[in-house]
Amino acid sequence: MPLWSQSLIPTLRENPQEAEIPSHTLMLRAGLIRRLSGGLYTFLPLGLRALRRVERIVREEMDAAGALEVLMPALQPRELWDRTGRYEAMGDVMFKVRDRQQRELVLGPTHEEVITELAAREINSYRGLPRTFYQIQNKFRDEIRPRFGLMRAKEFSMKDAYSFDLGWDEADASYQAMYNAYTRIFTRCGLRTRVVEADTGAMGGKWSHEFMVLAEAGEDGLVECEGCPYAANLERAERRAPDAPPPPQAAADGAAESPRDVETPGCKTIEQVSAFLRCEPARLIKTLIYTVNGRPAAVLVAGDRDLNEHKLARALETGDVALADDATIERVTGAPVGFAGPVGLDIPVYADQGLRGISGAAAGANRADTHVTGVSLDRDAAVTAYYDLAAVREGDRCPRCGGRLREKRGIEVGHVFKLGTRYSERLGALYLDEHGERKPMVMGCYGIGVTRTLQAVIEQSHDDKGIVWPAAVAPYPVVILDLDPSVPASAGAAARLAETLEARGIDVLVDDRDERPGIKFHDADLIGFPLRVVIGRRGLEQGKLEVKRRTEEKAEMVAIEAAAEAVAARIREWSGGVKE
Ligand SMILES: [Zn+2]
By Cβ atoms counted within 10 A, which residue in 22, 77, 285, 571 is the most buried? Predict the structure, then answer.
């Protein structure tokens, strides 16, 4: 029978300074974790219990989906990462070490390389497919700014899974199976998640979805449609082009507008130019000079919009897009930084679709302290191509139905990718089909941030007193507060109830500390045990004890003999028929 007095549960009265968001504060205050140094945390007994319960749910659902558990090394030879080209692509986010023979190794931020190498060696025939493998293991990422506790840590627990299939259709089925398992996992953890379309980024691949926990403190932006199920990460989000560009303002002198240079001394920002020219920002053409695959190109968006670099990279089908340096900008525009414009440029010009057909617009004149007004983009500039490049924001129109898009914040807890054959081709994961033909396996990969999921549960489920654990992932679903532990009758009643509950498979913590009742009540609320049983002197005299849910205000008095069943009934209700 676990006793509070014998454990290590260092609750804190005050909010620790290091904590930035509610869940981080509460994990520290409830004595679940302690910080070792930036982005590194120790799990204390209660935190570890909760983590293990999340892991158990993940394991059960992965097993049920037919995935096979393996465990790969965290240390991986650099050579594998060179073969997929990701040693460079990952850059400084990867921890790099050397062994005593000076061989280079990395601490795995993910495991596509290792699992694909395994599949290449061990699976040779179509008879060995499909297979999905998974592991639960610590990953390492050298974050520039570790923060928010477990949300962005340097070492964290992840469940990663990888599917290998004969072809694309079969891979779709594996993807769907993982997608469905993820939905069940997060539901069982008590989380409300939103599935959004996401960018594939450094992972490569064709398609991906993220499972987001909606929360104010979330690091990721997303949009969702008010009129249809469309939802997307901001990196990925598309918008329907406006029906028509805004009507041109009449020229000051009433004449038909043609391009005209205007001196704009010292006006560099959109705000300055807009105010000086008395031109609304939407009618300014913001001209950004980029390098695309090492060559300069101009990228245009309306003055009131931001460029989404992820969308630019996707539209141009390259990972190599970056803002040009000042020297390049001056060379291709012939003007100091701040006065670039599309008219007269002899480099490729990519424009956001929202600018299509715009006239009477203003832009930089590619000359110091000068802008050009009266620009009709199609007439006056050589636009190479129009794409959807602008960052989507609240109020934009849904790409599917034209409805209004709403902006939200979220915490990414899961991510599923259709990878295709990128890794299997580079690492030789080929199989012989029924006709003896050699083909690359089609892959998918699937991640759940296990430690992050745990913290997301708290971020989504807490109140001003503390954590409100869903029973399925609480460190203990039940706490028994023994208010008079030095009184044998009280301690005896607590022990008997705890033993009866344990015999029914219900984990219980007994608060037997020599503390005032107020402190016990306070700590029980702070840690957030779903069910609290109080054994006190007055109740004992009447043969009763008190049972209360964390979410309820009022407690219920229950006869001692009936207490075990009363507790068990509530636990059953929570688990909703799910095997505990
Ligand atoms: Zn829609």
Answer: 285
For residues 522 and 379, state if they share a domain: no
Shared-domain flag, residues 171 and 283: no
Cα of 302 vs centre of ligand 1, distance in Å, is 23
Q: How many CB atoms lie within 10 A of CB 385?
A: 11
CA gap 17, 95 in Å, rounded: 28
**Strand locations in 115-192, DSSP E?**
131-140, 155-165
Residue at 9 is within a domain? no
**One domain for residues 362 and 453:** no
Residue 537 lies in a domain: yes
Same domain, 91 and 183: yes
Q: Distance from the CA of 386 to the center of ligand 1, in angstroms?
A: 22
Structure tokens at 115: 């699992």
Nearest to 532 by CA among 505, 502, 494, 562: 494
| Cα 483 to averaged position of ligand 1 atoms, centre (Å) | 56
CA 448–ligand 1 middle distance (angstroms): 27
- Mark the residues whose beta carbon lies below 5 A from ion ligand 1: 225, 227-228, 230, 398, 400-401, 403
Query: 249 with 279: CB under 8 angstroms?
Result: yes
* Domain with 533 in it: 476-575
Task: Residue 118: name the closest of 98, 105, 133, 138 by CA.
Answer: 133
Q: Are residues 29 and 176 in the same domain?
A: yes
Residue 403 Cα to ligand 1 middle (Å): 5
Look at phi and psi of residue 420 and say left if phi exceeds 0, alpha if psi is from -120 to 50, else beta: left
Predicted model pTM = 0.87
Q: Residues 70, 135: contact at Cβ < 8 Å?
A: yes
For residue 239, report the distance from its CA to the centre of ligand 1, in Å. 10
CA of 218 to the centre of ligand 1 (A): 23
488 with 439, same domain: the answer is no
- Do residues 324 and 432 share a domain? no
Q: Say how many Å lie between the CA of residue 540 and the centre of ligand 1.
A: 60
How many Å apart are CA 375 and CA 381, to the nearest integer?
A: 9
* CATH classification of the domain holding 510: 3.40.50.800
pLDDT, tens digit only, all 580 positions of the chain: 899 999 999 999 999 988 889 999 999 999 999 999 999 999 999 999 999 999 999 999 999 999 999 999 999 999 999 999 999 988 899 999 999 999 999 999 999 999 999 999 999 999 999 999 999 999 999 999 998 999 999 999 999 999 999 999 999 999 999 999 999 999 999 999 999 998 776 555 667 899 999 998 898 999 999 999 999 999 999 999 877 665 665 555 544 578 999 999 888 888 899 999 888 999 999 999 999 999 999 999 999 999 999 999 989 988 789 999 999 999 999 999 989 999 999 999 999 999 999 999 999 999 999 999 999 999 999 999 999 999 999 999 999 999 999 999 999 999 999 999 999 999 999 999 999 999 999 999 999 999 999 999 999 999 999 999 999 999 999 999 999 999 999 999 999 999 999 999 999 999 999 999 999 999 999 999 999 999 999 999 999 999 999 999 999 999 999 999 999 999 998 876 444 4
CATH number at residue 105: 3.30.930.10
Using DSSP's 3-state secondary structure scheme, residue 32 falls into coil
Residues 376 and 434 in one domain: no
User: How far does Cα 300 stand from its chain's mean position?
Assistant: 30
Distance in Å, CA 397 to ligand 1 centroid: 8
441 C-alpha to center of ligand 1: Å? 35
Tally of domains within the chain: 3
